[in-house]
Amino acid sequence: MIEALPDVPPARQELVSCALGAALAYDVPANILLAMAEKEAGKPGQWVKNSNGSFDVGTMQFNTTYLRDLTRYGISAADVAVPGCYPYLLAAWRIRGHLHNDAGDVWTRAANYHSRTRRYNAAYRADLMRRASRWTTWLDAHFPTHDAVVETNP
Description:
globular, Lysozyme, mainly alpha
């Protein structure tokens, strides 16, 4: 777990630490996962019915249609609905699949988490890009990286 971050409200500490851990675990860009977690804005135990009869479940609003692939591993909707980091890990797994397997630019592939339907994807994509840009600025301020320079003896 990441230490408390003073500029992140207590109610969002779990979102930040869980999203960062899941992004690292599944090699998903942290700014994208943070933006999605913010955008989805679900709550543990939350079920939202979609027009197609599926449900979006939990903090990451994980769609129940994706659970068909996970039942063979014993993962159920109840697992997605729990509080804590597990829903973020499942979402990162799914996002990684979109990023590695889907067509289009990285933002379109990431927005497939929400919908592959062009008009829904485009709206989600635009908002995702805006949010990810803000998260990039935040990440750069909190987690600076440094290039290692190896000095050689002459």
